[in-house]
């Protein structure tokens, strides 16, 4: 009997909207049956660019990602093949030499701000979820994360947000909301949305209600 292909659930939305919180909550509930793959892991390598210039790259533009590699990896995961995905350092603004082995599971959560922007990537996703959050809240969450976890200064966060993050959100991220099957408001703490996603996962893995 041929094994059913993994279910791919895509979680997109603006930076700081709560995508990672949703992914973490679903993974915590189904650790044996769910794996997570992030579009951020596929930022292009910038080995030949000096650090000061790497800091100024527009990381919110589709061209900043090696999306074709993520497409290839997702196709392999759908065929129950393990993959070696890239790893990325937000501190070095560069791809690292190390890779991470990702084992295919019954449900794959794909996460990223531009997950639905690329048509080939979008068509691999079975259920598309867009996490919608107020712009002020997204900015505050991003600021706290980047300062505490990524070693950024407040000034650099504000500069990046105004120069690239917000314009790219308006141009590339927000328009992909139209592709979503489910739009989640309130980020990772929308309990009704979490329950709906959990029910989809339970149905695929054969876990009783």
Jot down its keywords.
209 residues; alpha/beta; globular; Rossmann fold; two-stranded antiparallel ribbon; five-stranded parallel beta sheet; 39% helix
Description:
This protein is an alpha/beta fold and 209 residues long. It has one domain (7-203): Rossmann fold. The chain contains 7 helices and 7 strands, in the order E-H-E-H-H-E-E-E-H-E-H-H-E-H. The chain has helices at residues 19-29, 51-54, 67-78, 119-123, 135-149, 154-173, 191-205; strands spanning 7-13, 34-38, 83-89, 94-102, 107-111, 127-132, 182-185. A 5-stranded parallel beta sheet has the order 2-5-1-6-7, with helices on one face. A two-stranded antiparallel sheet has the order 3-4. The longest helix is centred in the last third of the chain and has 20 residues, at 154-173. The chain is globular.
Widest sheet: strand ordering: 2-5-1-6-7
CATH-defined fold name: Rossmann fold
Helix content: 25-40%
- How many discrete structural domains? 1
Number of helices: 7
Strand content: 15-25%
* Number of extended strands: 7
CATH architecture: 3-Layer(aba) Sandwich
Tell me the distance between the termini: 25 Å
Largest sheet: 5 strands, parallel
Kindly report the average pLDDT value. Answer: 92
The CATH homologous superfamily is named P-loop containing nucleotide triphosphate hydrolases
The arrangement of helices and strands along the chain is EHEHHEEEHEHHEH
Structural class: alpha/beta
Q: Write down the CATH class.
A: Alpha Beta
């Amino acid at each position: 009997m041929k094994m059913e292909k993994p279910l791919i659930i895509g979680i997109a939305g603006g930076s700081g909207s709560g995508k990672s919180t949703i992914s973490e909550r679903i993974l915590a509930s189904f650790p044996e049956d769910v794996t997570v793959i992030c579009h951020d892991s596929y930022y292009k390598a910038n080995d030949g660019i000096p650090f000061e210039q790497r800091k100024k790259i527009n990381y919110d533009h589709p061209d900043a990602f090696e999306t074709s590699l993520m497409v290839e990896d997702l196709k392999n995961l759908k065929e129950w093949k393990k993959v070696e995905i890239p790893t990325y350092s937000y501190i070095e603004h560069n791809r690292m030499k190390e890779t991470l082995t990702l084992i295919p599971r019954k449900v794959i959560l794909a996460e990223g701000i531009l997950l639905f922007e690329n048509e080939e990537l979008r068509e691999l996703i079975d259920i598309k979820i867009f996490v919608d959050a107020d712009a002020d809240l997204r900015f505050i969450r991003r600021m706290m994360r980047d300062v505490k976890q990524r070693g950024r200064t407040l000034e650099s966060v504000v500069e990046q947000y105004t120069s690239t993050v917000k314009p790219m959100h308006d141009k590339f991220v927000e328009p992909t909301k139209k592709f979503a099957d489910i739009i989640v408001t309130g980020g990772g703490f929308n309990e009704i949305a979490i329950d709906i996603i959990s029910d989809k996962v339970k149905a695929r893995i054969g876990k009783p209600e």
